[in-house]
């Protein structure tokens, strides 16, 4: 595979460089074709798939010819730095993994996963920090079409998962006070993600803010009841019990389960659990009512 000095960025605006020279990638549709090739990581993409990537289910009659025009322009633009090859009924763009920020991101996340499996939380945090640092704004910015929209959502979710895993590692390493600002931001942006609130509670407790940590629990408990008709999950409830008991182990590096960042749990019948009185706190994420964002 050839990459030379070529570099591609997809975790933000779609961009490419040949050495120090940034390449003019053309129209949003042409950038979508390039992104589709890069995200396939050297595997073949059919012409029909490229057409669907740009126009969805209603392509114009000239779609196939237009896609081939985009491919021809990209080949000319990339020249010897990288080669779009014809394979059967489609095309591929093989480049080194280090040449594309998305594959580098995935490699860092895989390294973090392996480090955590081996019990090396500090190494996992370092790999996750390198992964998160690749974020340059809205993924696939400048590309257009249904494929770009779907992949943008997927990449945003992967980046969010890496951010939460990194914050979990920081809390586990005893650096909860440093993680509080970002955790508060994430709790406000994703109010139904219980893991974020759990980490925020632990971080606040590590910083000596027990009342604030308990107030976060009360807010998210009421939010889950209002929005989904469910009680907090096991992780949130366990953190709440330990904070109420002033568990001294919570202020030390402790083994936490790997962060999970899936969609909120499916609403289930209420269990009729008791609702302890709320605890006032001067600083905590804003209370969200009738909001269902993830």
Describe, in plain words, how this protein is organized in 3D.
With 294 residues, this protein is mainly alpha-helical. The chain folds into two domains: 1-159, Orthogonal Bundle (Arc Repressor Mutant, subunit A); 174-294, Serine Threonine Protein Phosphatase 5, Tetratricopeptide repeat (Alpha Horseshoe), CATH 1.25.40. It has helices at 28-39, 47-55, 63-78, 101-117, 121-132, 146-172, 176-189, 194-206, 210-228, 234-244; strands spanning 6-9, 15-18, 21-22, 45-46, 85-87, 90-92. The strands form two sheets. It has a three-stranded antiparallel sheet with strand order 1-2-3, with no helix packed on it. A three-stranded antiparallel sheet has the order 4-6-5. Helix 5 (121-132) runs antiparallel to helix 6, helix 6 (146-172) packs antiparallel against helix 7 (176-189) and helix 7 runs antiparallel to helix 8 (194-206). The radius of gyration is 23 Å and the shape is elongated. The model is unreliable at 254-285 and 287-294 (pLDDT under 50).
């Amino acid at each position: 595979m050839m990459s030379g000095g070529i570099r591609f960025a997809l975790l933000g605006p779609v961009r490419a460089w040949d050495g120090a020279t940034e390449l003019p990638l053309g129209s949003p549709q042409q950038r979508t074709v390039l992104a589709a090739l890069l995200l396939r990581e050297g595997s073949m993409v059919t012409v029909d798939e490229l057409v669907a990537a740009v126009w969805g289910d209603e392509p114009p009659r000239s779609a196939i010819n237009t896609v081939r025009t985009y491919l021809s322009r990209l080949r000319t633009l990339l020249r010897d730095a990288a080669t779009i090859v014809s394979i059967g009924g489609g095309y591929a763009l093989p480049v080194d993994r280090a040449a594309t920020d998305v594959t580098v991101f995935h490699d860092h996340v895989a390294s973090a996963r392996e480090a955590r499996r081996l019990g090396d939380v500090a190494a996992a945090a370092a790999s996750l920090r390198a992964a998160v640092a690749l974020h340059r704004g809205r993924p696939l910015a400048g590309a257009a079409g249904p494929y770009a929209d779907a992949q943008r959502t997927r990449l945003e979710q992967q980046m969010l998962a890496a951010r939460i895993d990194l914050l979990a590692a920081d809390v586990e390493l005893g650096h909860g006070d440093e993680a509080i600002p970002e955790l508060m931001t994430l709790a406000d942006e994703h109010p139904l993600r219980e893991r974020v609130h759990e980490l925020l509670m632990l971080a606040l407790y590590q910083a000596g803010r027990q009342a604030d940590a308990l107030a976060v629990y009360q807010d998210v408990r009421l939010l889950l009841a209002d929005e989904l008709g469910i009680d907090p999950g096991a992780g949130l409830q366990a953190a709440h019990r330990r904070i109420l008991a002033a568990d001294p182990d919570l202020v030390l590096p402790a083994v936490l389960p790997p962060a999970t960042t899936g969609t909120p749990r499916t609403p289930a019948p209420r269990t009729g659990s008791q609702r302890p009185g709320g605890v006032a706190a001067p600083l905590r994420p804003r209370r969200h009512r009738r909001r269902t964002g993830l």
